[in-house]
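Hi, here's the filled form for the chain we discussed.

Project: internal
Contact: R.S.
Residues: 589
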Amino acid sequence: MTTSLFQYSSSIFLPYRKLRRIPLLLLSLIVLWIMIVSVGPLPALAQTLSALQEKPQEPPQEKPQEKPNDEMVVPHILIPTAPVILDGDILFQVRGVSALPAEERARRILERIDEFGSDLSRSTQSLRLVEEKGVTMIFAGDQPLMGVTNADGRLEGGVEREVLARIYLKRIAEAVETHREKRKPINILIHIAFSLLATAILGSAWWGTRWIFDKLDTIIEPRYKERVKDLKVQKVIILQAHQMWAGLRGGIHGIKTFLLFLLLYAYLNFVFRQFPWTAHIGKQLFNILLDPIRVIVRGFLSSFPSLVFLVILIILLRYLLKFGKLIFANLSIGKVTWPGFDREWAWPTYRIFRTLVIAFGIVVGYPYIPGSTSEAFKGITIFLGVLLSLGSSSIIGNILAGYTLVYRRAFQEGDRIKVNEILGDVIERRILTTRLRSLKNEEIIVPNSEILNSHVTNYSAAAREKGLILHTTVGIGYETPWRQVEAMLIEAADRTSGLLKDPRPFVLQLALGDFCVTYELNVYCDRPYYMMDLYTGLNQNILDVFNEHRVQVMTPAYMADPPQPKIVPKDQWFTPPAKLPEKPRTSET
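And the returned structure, exactly as it came back:
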């Protein structure tokens, strides 16, 4: 009986979802804190979001002004610079030119400063300025360290070259003094002692944290585990007790992991800062850990509108598929009918519908996938497309053949079929293959394309309505009346259990051979799965009946005719078990 689509239980169309576990909430708070640290305070975040929505404007063009050296003023943001870093501290930034990039210039300056700082025989008092044409040189004794040009002064906001050179000289002197002080043996020993003390503190804190949380587990579990019950709304279980307990324990272990991570980070940051060779790692450790997250967060914020579109698209497609699944589920069980639509077509049609919906979603959402316009993304998609095109021809052929077999209704699961020389029962139909179980209990997997291109014999289709006809042949000599043979064959069929009595068995005379007459016995059955047993029983009864009436089943070959002709006299036409008809035929009179 046809019913409304919406009489289904709401739990099928809108199933209850499992709630997030407590560790996910903790992880969300950590990620939120990292986002705030990465992108700055909340006002800056709001400005970032508003800037993403606005159309980027081109920076105002500054009119070139003539300088004494006929150089053009270039915006500072467009000038590439590189830092000069000694022991993790940035001394100053330097610019470069096409012949000497900023990174290479900073590297050369650092090498000279490091060489000067490592030579304890050379005092920082030997640092001096030497004016040359258009440049102020900083010397350490007779060795030049670097030169300061007017362009460097403009990079620092228009500071005069001589003033900037004196600032650089003072900064180099202080950095060299600190560089030498950190490398004194006594200071190295002190920092080693501090590092060993920090290691001991870390070990104690690590062990203490684990001990506290292990103790907390042993206290909480026996007291509160049995008190946790299923979370229900009326009779619907939203969250089971073991899930709630697992969430609670997961949250505790998440807090323990976070605290251990903080201890390890504080230890590494402290120890790295103790030694001049690793001080720069300690100072940049926080940035090293956060730089990947900062890049991800900024990429997420820039792609936020596209991600919102994708989320909405996925939600709409998800509920469209749920609605389609509900309709086809009703069609498959017969609650909803559609003229000309067979029930067994419901799920294959749903799979086609699902494929089309997903393909539509990919086509619509592809331009909004972050990075879809990049060359790397295009290269990967082209590579995957080539792989699919080269290796999917047979797969696609089997898929199309599978759907074709479904809509042709060639067979159903449970039918006994014969494909070429393979005889077996259909145990499963899939998109690519069909699984058969042979009469020897062998599992045979046949590709759907092979079935589509072969002759398929279905023994079960007609047996459900009209019955399957089983047949067997025997060769009987000409000396035996055909009426007697037919009667004996019918009697053998009546003795065989499992055959249908209605329709009645019938006999066909197939051929008048050289040595015998070929008879075919046809019987009806409605159980094709027992056809081999029925054949065996039928053949056994044929042998018994023919032996009882002393009729030879097979006529042996011979070299010459016997003296008497091999004919049946008229008075023997109705030899038992044949019976004389009530009204003799005209041909017999």
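Let me know if anything looks off before we file it.
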